[in-house]
Write a structure and sequence with these properties.
By secondary structure, this protein is α/β, with parallel strands linked by helices. The protein is built from 13 helices and eleven strands. A hairpin with a 4-residue loop joins strand 10 and strand 11. The longest helix has 20 residues.
């Protein structure tokens, strides 16, 4: 069997949805004012305000890391701390950028299912008002989480209520927010601003966009001077129409929903195809577009020769398989068939 150029490593690895690519081409004519003062950016911002409310403030940036860092920076000072799960992207996969650029300390909390709770947050509320300790200022959650789990709206509300009672803010890393929304059967607003989220990093790159992220503030005061933070953070796009056009296409006719529904469905089908194969142990609930499993260590490189994926935990031989908007049943069935055959041979 030849090596496949498809796989289950990351939904980042998928290409750009044709509708998004067409949108990029459609704005590639003529001259418009740069740096976001163009009709395409106005259209995208207007669409997002329809979703998140007229009081929301929307700012486009290039990357998810930038959205997280600048969003956190807007509500903090360098003596503050950000409470997050120990699996959070801001803690594990952003090369220390949140701490470097905000000056804040990240307080990473062990969370076996990737989700914070009020009790877990309370465990970090120490040294309040004591000048020798950093002061907790933001709780950061990810929806859906790095472990594929999804916060319910009630869980988000509970965390938000506690954070606000303590004078803190709630930040949501929404890199896979579309997968979470379809898993819950809800829209974006209900589980963000409507549930008490203060700052949202809204992403679509993992669900069919090429690049770009939006920082959404649900209280105008938090957005004060953010345009200067964005510029200093090297995230002010001169040709912003190309980011904006993607968001317009992404939101048009609920493309985000169709893509995420498919990715989640493929994850459920992958789970169903592999869960009863001898030698496979599913380790986490499949709630969005991720499947986690433990398989024999010696089988991993053989399987990766044909379908690339990442090992999540080298020590336990736990792997992660991500499905995308363009994952096919042929991908799922071919992968499951090869995995079964390799495991049978290894016994």
């Amino acid at each position: 069997m030849g090596k496949s150029n498809r796989g289950f490593a990351s939904d980042n690895n998928a290409g750009v949805h044709p509708a998004v690519m067409n949108a990029l081409a459609s704005v590639n004519e003529g001259h418009v004012i740069a740096y976001g003062d163009d009709p395409f950016t106005a259209d995208a911002v207007g669409r997002m305000k329809e979703i998140f409310g007229g009081q929301s403030e929307i700012f486009f940036v290039f990357t998810g890391t930038a959205a997280n860092v600048l969003g956190l920076d807007a509500g903090t000072s360098s003596h503050h701390a950000v409470i997050c799960p120990d699996t959070a992207h801001i803690h594990v996969d952003e090369c220390g950028a949140p701490e470097k650029f905000t000056g804040c300390k990240l307080l990473a909390v062990p969370a076996p299912d990737g989700k914070l709770t009020v009790d877990l947050v309370k465990g970090q509320m120490r040294g309040i008002g004591f000048e020798h300790h950093v002061q907790p200022r933001v709780v950061s959650i990810t929806q859906s989480t790095e472990l594929g789990t999804v916060y319910t709206i009630d869980e988000i509300r509970e965390i938000a209520a506690y954070a606000h009672d303590q004078g803190m803010l709630l930040h949501m890393d929404g890199a896979r927010i579309s997968n979470a929304a379809v898993a819950l059967g809800t829209g974006f607003s209900e589980m963000t601003g409507g549930a008490g989220v203060d700052v949202l990093s809204f992403g679509g790159t993992k669900n069919g966009m090429m690049y770009g992220e939006a920082v959404v503030f649900f209280h105008p005061g938090l957005a004060r001077d953010f345009r200067y933070r964005r510029k200093q953070g090297m995230q002010l796009a001169s040709k912003m129409r190309y980011i904006a056009a993607q968001f317009s296409a992404y939101l048009e006719e609920d493309l985000w929903r169709k893509n995420a529904l498919h990715a989640n469905r493929m994850a459920r089908e992958l789970h169903g195809a592999v869960k009863d194969i001898p030698g496979v142990t599913i380790t986490r609930e499949v709630e969005s577009n991720a499947v986690f499993a433990i398989i024999p260590r010696e089988v991993i490189p053989l399987l990766q020769e044909h379908y690339f994926f990442y090992v999540w935990d080298e020590e336990t031989s736990e792997v992660r398989w991500m499905c995308s908007y363009d994952t096919t049943r042929e991908d799922v069935n071919g992968f499951a068939s090869l995995l079964g055959s390799l495991l049978e041979r290894s016994r």
